[in-house]
């Protein structure tokens, strides 16, 4: 969809401009390696679209070629920030998993070594919080998400879930938290009230959980060439995938992802905001995450 691609392209441009200012050059190189190795920019695009779906004006003329509105400036800053936080978390994930590939390219630790990879993760977080600093609600939202993400990573390593309920709690922390933050940041950029911010957050958290469930299925059933990263990592690393925890079949697990999709759409329906392309894409995204093949 051209509408969404315009917004994704605007995020990409803003991301490149942000990282081009990083010093020293060696740090900039490692941050760019991590950030531009691929990725669909789903979270930052969600931030921009949630801003619009919450009634915020991103471009004064309606297109990326026009001058950014104040809400648009905030939305793009927040969008880039959440993508940098996500990228930082992937650096750590790859170290934990000892994965040499990320999106078909060398992971940060494989390219630069463990020390430089950790420095890159720290650098990404520093650049991100510099973008959130202008709005206390944004800073709090992302800090809360990072706490949840850390709890999820820790629990996965030392207290593996043994039930469906525990698995879903882990998925909310590990994946849903950053999706929630991405959507809430968009609503915050639009100066939405707390109830609307929370509804967008619930929508995105459910999308994130559905994404994680589908990711587990793809890890178990996909191949490395299609995924752009090693397959079968959950079994190799003895990680708690939804298939292993619940003992359900692939079909039953896909149905569990469908339940999360339906709950996400129900949360979105509670928002009395403008209809249009942004809202349509958010609907489509909830469907896409349970149908994707990589």
From TrEMBL:
Pfam families documented for this protein: polyprenyl_synt
UniProt cross-references to SUPFAM superfamilies, sorted A to Z: Terpenoid synthases (SSF48576)
Cofactor(s) the protein requires to work: Mg(2+)
Keyword terms: Isomerase, Magnesium, Metal-binding, Transferase
GO biological process, one term: isoprenoid biosynthetic process
InterPro entries, per the entry: Isoprenoid_synthase_dom_sf, Polyprenyl_synt, Polyprenyl_synt_CS
Coiled-coil spans in chain: none
MF-aspect GO terms: isomerase activity; metal ion binding; prenyltransferase activity
PANTHER family membership: GERANYLGERANYL PYROPHOSPHATE SYNTHASE (PTHR12001), SHORT CHAIN ISOPRENYL DIPHOSPHATE SYNTHASE (PTHR12001:SF85)
Annotated family: Belongs to the FPP/GGPP synthase family.
Protein name: Isopentenyl pyrophosphate isomerase
């Amino acid at each position: 969809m051209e509408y969404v691609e315009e917004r994704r392209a605007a995020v990409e441009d803003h991301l490149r401009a942000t990282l081009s200012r990083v010093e020293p050059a060696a740090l900039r190189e490692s941050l760019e390696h991590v950030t531009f190795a691929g990725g669909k920019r789903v979270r930052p695009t969600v931030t921009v679209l949630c801003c619009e779906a919450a009634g915020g004006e991103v471009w004064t003329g309606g297109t990326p070629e026009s001058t950014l509105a104040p809400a648009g400036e905030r939305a793009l800053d927040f969008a880039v920030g959440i993508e940098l936080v996500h990228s930082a978390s992937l650096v750590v994930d790859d170290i934990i998993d000892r994965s040499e590939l990320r999106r078909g390219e060398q992971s940060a630790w494989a390219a630069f070594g463990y020390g430089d990879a950790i420095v890159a993760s720290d650098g990404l977080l520093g650049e991100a919080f510099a973008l959130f600093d202008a709005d206390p609600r944004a800073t709090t939202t992302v800090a809360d998400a990072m706490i949840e993400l850390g709890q999820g990573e820790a629990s996965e390593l030392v207290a593996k879930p043994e039930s469906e309920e525990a698995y879903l709690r882990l998925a909310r922390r590990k994946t849903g938290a950053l999706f929630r933050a991405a959507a809430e940041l968009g609503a915050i950029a639009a100066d939405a009230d707390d109830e609307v911010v929370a509804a967008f957050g619930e929508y995105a958290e459910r999308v994130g959980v559905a994404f994680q469930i589908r990711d587990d299925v793809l890890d178990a059933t996909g191949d490395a060439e299609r995924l752009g990263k090693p397959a079968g990592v959950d079994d190799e690393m003895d990680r708690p995938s939804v298939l292993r925890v619940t003992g359900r079949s692939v079909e039953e697990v896909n149905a569990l992802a469908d339940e999360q999709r339906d709950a996400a759409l129900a949360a979105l329906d509670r928002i009395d905001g403008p209809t249009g392309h942004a809202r349509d894409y958010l609907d489509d995204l909830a469907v896409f995450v349970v149908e994707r093949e990589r």
